[in-house]
Write a structure and sequence with these properties.
The chain is built from five helices and six strands; from the N terminus they run H-E-H-E-E-H-E-H-E-E-H. The protein has a six-stranded parallel β-sheet with strand order 3-2-1-4-5-6, sandwiched between helices. The longest helix is centred in the N-terminal third of the chain and has 16 residues. The radius of gyration is 15 Å and the shape is globular. The relative contact order is 0.21.
Length: 168
């Protein structure tokens, strides 16, 4: 039942979000976000690699992770939220997640190969100008730039970074 309300809430948030979505030339990007679902140590390392690359380019970077049940939060390096942070009525209640969605980010990189309702809710609510993620049919309204990648999370990260760097 909770997930039904969450999906309804996500669709409402997507419609209500009045952020002017557009791509920003990479040289003018000041802030970026990384959103991902915790899976394993290798994905965690890939997120850290993108974080370092963006910081090396002089971007201010914020990271938010969705931590599913029975998954390990490696290093406690990133802010995270869990399914427990969603009320029965599908309302987001995590202070960290609410701060993240209100940040006026230039780019938001979503490093998930498949999308869960929790991450979609964040994407629908966020104030990022350009949301970047893996192409998934039916999820076009959540992104301004979708990457067709068949090379796993590492390939998705590499291609997302490469394509956004080429934006002029």
């Amino acid at each position: 039942m909770k997930l039904t309300f969450l999906r309804y809430n996500t669709n409402n948030q997507l419609k209500k979000n009045k952020t002017a979505h557009a791509s920003t030339p990479f040289t003018k990007v000041q802030s970026a976000g990384i959103l991902f679902t915790v899976e394993d140590k290798s994905k965690h390392e890939i997120v850290k690699e993108l974080l370092k690359r963006l910081q090396h380019e002089g971007k201010k970077v914020f990271v938010l992770a969705f931590l599913p049940e029975k998954k390990e939060n490696f290093e406690f390096l990133f802010n995270y939220f869990t399914q427990k942070d969603i009320s029965f009525w599908g309302q987001l209640q995590s202070e960290d997640a609410l701060k993240f969605v209100d940040m006026p980010l230039d780019n938001l990189y979503c490093l998930d190969e498949s999308y869960n309702p929790m991450v979609l809710n964040i994407l629908a609510r966020c104030k990022a100008k350009c949301r970047i993620g893996k192409y998934a049919e039916g999820h076009e309204s959540f992104f301004e730039l979708m990457i067709e990648s068949k090379q796993g999370i590492k390939g998705l990260m590499e291609e997302s970074y490469r394509y956004t760097r080429e934006l002029r």
